[in-house]
Amino acid sequence: MALQQNKVREQGAGSSPGGDTEEDVMFRKTARAALAVLMGAAAFSLAATPRAAQAQAYPARPITVVVPFAAGGPTDTVARLVAESMTKTLGQQVIVENVGGAGGTRGAGQVAKAAPDGYTLLLHHIGQATAPSLYRKLPYKVTDFETAGLITAVPMTLIAKPGFEPKSIADVVAYVKANKDKVTYGNAGVGSASHLCGMLFMSAVGTQVTTVPYQGTGPAMNDLVGGQIDLMCDQTTNTTGQIKGGKVKAYAVTTKEPVKSLPDLPTMEAGGLKGFEVTVWHGLYAPKGTPADVVAKLNAALNTALEDPKVVARFADLGTEPEPKDRRSAEFHKTFLTAEVAKWKPIIEAAGVYAD
Length: 356
What we know:
This protein is α/β, with parallel strands linked by helices. The protein folds into two domains: 63-153 and 280-351, D-Maltodextrin-Binding Protein, domain 2 (3-Layer(aba) Sandwich); 155-253, Periplasmic binding protein-like II (D-Maltodextrin-Binding Protein, domain 2). It is built from twelve helices and nine strands. It has helices spanning 2-13, 22-56, 74-90, 105-112, 127-134, 169-178, 193-205, 217-225, 236-244, 292-307, 309-317, 330-351, and strands at 63-67, 94-98, 120-124, 145-160, 184-187, 210-213, 231-235, 249-253, 279-287. The strands form two sheets. Strands 1, 2, 3, 4, 7, 8 and 9 form a seven-stranded mixed β-sheet that branches. It holds the Pfam family TctC.
């Protein structure tokens, strides 16, 4: 290009105004066109490079994971363990934000309306599947989210205040039936896991007791430990420490098989409640429309977290374990969620429990 420009100057210097030959004119036109092409290509490259870098840079800033329940609860515990590990993998801080209220629907609704850029996520439990049937005016649809992977399925335990009279799960059933007007059952609010478990328990026993809803699992547990309420059914992530510490009285687990971390507890079925089984699964979500490559990166980071020895060990301490690899993909999560919505719909409708 430099040689072409020198040639133009040399020819121009030896020519008089208006004395250019047709060959000179054509040469200058060709040189200018070539220069324009080169400048255009350079401009395109400069404009395209930031876009490419931006697409490859996710995440370029901290990520917020909304937990739709109060701090200190079982879902919050799961979220903080996973977030800590994902922070190391993604190279950006993954921050847990608690947005409680309305049985988890307030926080979920906030994420549903967030920008679909991968920087605002939702970590929710089984309530994501039950809310469509439980709430008459749900501020979002299940389809307003992209599934990013299942995390863990947590067993639940039936526990009572210290000094509660019954000695076994069979005794609890008999006591509840004989004292239904005196027995109180606490839960973390309408739509919470403890609410669902209690609803199934009362259905299985065939007796309704006084239900006391709280704003989160933490306050409910405090009142159970303090003796203000009689019974509660909640996830092992929240009850194992209380059980091992002797702060509450434990009766049974809600799984088909005994839980490794609580080997002395029988199953609800072994206690006479045939077919009683419920686990509280957790999953990660992004707003609908989040790019597929971003969801894939989140899923990969989540899978890495679930292989993290620290996370696995802590989950074991809490009476749970990571979901198997074949259940962690975004695709499996989507199919599973659809099936869970269909499973819980008739149960909730039969119980006749709804929330506005």
